[in-house]
Amino acid sequence: MAKPGTDQARKGALRLLQGVRDGLSLSDQAGALKALPAVDQARAARLAAEVLRHRDRADAVLSTHVNRKPAPQIADVLRLATVEMLELGGAAYGVVDAAVSLTRGLGRRGQAATGMVNAVLRKVAQHQGWAELPPQRLPDWLRGPVVATWGEDAALAIEAAHQAGAPLDLTPKPGAAQVEGAEPLPTGSLRLRGPVQVSALPGFAEGDWWVQDAAAALPVRLLDPQPGERIADLCAAPGGKTLQLAAVGARVTAVDVSPTRLKRVAENLRRCRLAADLVAADVLDWRPDTPLDAILLDAPCSATGTIRRHPDLPFLRDGSGLADLTGLQARLIDHALTLLPPGGRLVYAVCSLLPDEGEAQIAAALARHPRLTVEAPGLPGIEPGWITPEGGLRLRPDYWPDRGGMDGFFMARLRRPADG
Ligand SMILES: C[S@@+](CC[C@H](N)C(=O)[O-])C[C@H]1O[C@@H](n2cnc3c(N)ncnc32)[C@H](O)[C@@H]1O
């Protein structure tokens, strides 16, 4: 949970929220607050994320006290103060005073609104029943397919998981020391709760682990890489899966279209003292110089499985562009299959909640390539209900509710026939 803000952090959070209204993601704005001390930058980012996670609830409370819809900047001040008081436990007197002074700083319109902001927030401070309000609703373009596939109760559970946010998961290098205070998860990841400064954790400088959601660590476990195998990691950046492959001793070629994002793969490999060949190329144009044993294809997707950690995503996307993405995913699968030797295996993965990007892609790939088989996952920590009728693995944010959830993911292991 984020701590109630300082004035600097509150101003920073409002700037980030304005950026999201202008179409920028919170990650795009990572450098926007660099004039602030690091601690306030981190607080501002957490406050902005909390406002986005609780925006519907804040608006529901505010709507009972506000007569006319306020201007967007003033609405953000009201939401921030509401979330600080009702979600983060901020003391009303400090939060309301800060909100009034932030409003005063918003020009003539702000100066005229200070009385309203003060009066409304004093009433909000008395609000009872915050915890019972329904969680932030998924946008319709995403909620529709989720309800159609898993039902209304699943959509509500996913929304509750998004609102709760995500713990910090680490993937340890094989044989690395345990991280103090981290909970070992049944699938092999380590989990830490509460705000954590990653670079201050033991083992960071030594590269004993890397940050990777427990669900995101499973495609490589499903691929089951062996020491010495030649493996292509297609769409590799920022490289969490490249690190996993290299850490077991596979000979990895990591391909990504973005040279900038590949630099992050190089940095991650360096810190973890691991090696891989890095290739900046469009996967659709790439062929390996030497035959491969296996392929990991972590395809570009809607990233709708990562909303716990990216609560800005529902405010930035409208579902347009999905047809382009699913078309690209199908072309990437078909091209990757041409790179596999007979008998070779390919894991297809997407961090998406949309069946069109997961289950339906595999069904369509099997229809296009009837001799392909799907190998059902037999991994430690996997529950039978997570395996789909196609033999893929569907992961959802509402799974492991008592442990703190996981990202939404779909993955499947495909095998080319040995005779062609
Ligand atoms: C889901 S992310 C990959 C995450 C990564 N596998 C990891 O575990 O850290 C998708 C990546 O696909 C890359 N990408 C998108 N289209 C591509 C293409 N046609 N060829 C190569 N890379 C592509 C993007 O630059 C992005 O880095």
Automatic annotation (TrEMBL):
Question: Which residues are in the SAM-dependent MTase RsmB/NOP-type domain?
Answer: 130-417
One example GO MF annotation: methyltransferase activity
Which residues does S-adenosyl-L-methionine bind?
235-241, 256, 282, 298
Q: Which UniProt keywords apply?
A: Methyltransferase, RNA-binding, S-adenosyl-L-methionine, Transferase
InterPro entries xrefs: MeTrfase_RsmB-F_NOP2_cat (IPR049560), MeTrfase_RsmB-F_NOP2_dom (IPR001678), NusB_RsmB_TIM44 (IPR006027), RCMT (IPR023267)
Domain of life, per the record?
Bacteria
Single biological process term from Gene Ontology: methylation
Q: Which Pfam families match?
A: Methyltr_RsmB-F (PF01189), NusB (PF01029)
Q: Where is the active site?
A: 351
The reply to whether S-adenosyl-L-methionine figures as a keyword in the UniProt entry is: yes
Write out the coiled-coil annotation as residue ranges: none
What CDD domains does the database record attribute to this sequence?
AdoMet_MTases
Keyword Cell division applies? no
The family this protein is said to belong to: Belongs to the class I-like SAM-binding methyltransferase superfamily. RsmB/NOP family.
Q: What is this protein called?
A: Methyltransferase
